[in-house]
Amino acid sequence: MTAEPGTAELRAPLAKRVTDTVTVAGFKLGWRALRGLPEPLAYGLFDRIADLSVKRGGKRIERLRANYRRARPELDDAALQALVRAGMRSYMRYYCEAFRLPSLSREQINGAVVCRGDEEVRRFTESGETVIAFVGHLGNFDLAAAWAAGQLAPTTTVAERLQPEEVFEEFVAFRNSIDMDIIPLTGGGDPFAALVQAARAGGRIIALASDRDLTSNGVEVDLVGHPARMAKGPAVLSLLTGAPLYCAAIHYEPAPNGTGLGGYRTVIEFSERLYPRVQGPTSAKAQDLIQQCADHLSVTIREHTSSWHMLQRVFVEDLSGGPR
Fold it and tell me: Angle at the Cα of 322 (from 54 to 223), degrees rounded to 5?
């Protein structure tokens, strides 16, 4: 005989449905409302949210501070605190732009992004080949991808599946509308198999945020002078398919008068094409390629630290505890 569910068991699914409904409604309301606000008001609101977050503190703020301290050990406490505030403002700028991105014209997107070192990438995409770009949690990846989709080639990326599902579907629909193809990390087929298929189809940029190891199957590299773990997917995909691999470091910089968004523009800096510097098995070559990506990112992290939105654990010495 099966016991009837108790009150707590009955309440749990209802509570989740209510929470999901509120989350979806809030997401849609925020998306629409922010698109209607004047630009200075919208960015000012998110600056205020950033400042309040730093003042309140918490595990994620402390993780950002710890990561910044490793990247910039020369800073005293006051300078580090100022950098954390700037970093949170940069992080909130990213979210403000993500909400407002659907309302931007192609001309506005092009005016808000500057790309350097993309000449060779253009030659590959114009000839119908696929390019693989290793990117980090730097600057505004979505705005950079929207620009690349219009100026270089349609873009494919992998994204963590958001909850509730309807929010993830909104996320995917919007990005599909700007020529971004989203492969879910979970809840679908094998994401790496889908990436291989996309790479072999040609004519795309596959951009993968890989400066965090989400699978515990990554490689250890040196990042800003400290051991860190990163995903090896971009390197393995390049070695398997022959598609050229680049690291694309993204950051914010103040925009010239009358350009950019909220006083800033997004900068994309491509590395030279990356080749394995070692002989041996695929694993050794992948390790070397990801280290080269880490080297490229390290320069940007040190020079534009506030654009590094890393509020999770990434360094090996932190992986045994603390906030992710």
Answer: 85
Q: Average pLDDT, whole number, for the chain?
A: 86
Same structural domain for residues 86 and 114? no
Whole-Å CA distances, 29 to 43, 86, 94, 101 = 17, 27, 18, 15
pLDDT at 163 over 70: no
Asked, for residue 86, whether it belongs to a domain, the answer is yes
Q: Residue 137's domain spans which residues? A: 105-318
Q: With CA atoms as reference, report the closest residue to 92 among 40, 136, 145, 44.
A: 44
Cα 295 to its chain centre, rounded Å, is: 18
Q: What predicted TM-score, i.e. pTM, was given to this entire model?
A: 0.85
- Which tokens is 119 given? 């000449």
How many independent structural domains does the chain possess? 2
Helices 39-56 & 59-71 angle (0-180, nearest 10)? 90
| Highest mean pLDDT, choosing among 17-21, 144-148, 158-162 | 144-148
Q: How far from 68 is each of 128, 225, 304, 306, CA to CA, in Å?
A: 40, 12, 11, 8
Count the neighbouring beta carbons within 10 Å of the beta carbon of residue 158: 20
Query: Is 34 part of any domain?
Result: yes
CA-nearest of 266, 243, 13 to 139 is 266
- Residues 289 and 276: beta-carbon distance below 8 Å: yes
SS3 181: strand
- The span from the CA of 31 to the CA of 116, in Å, is 31
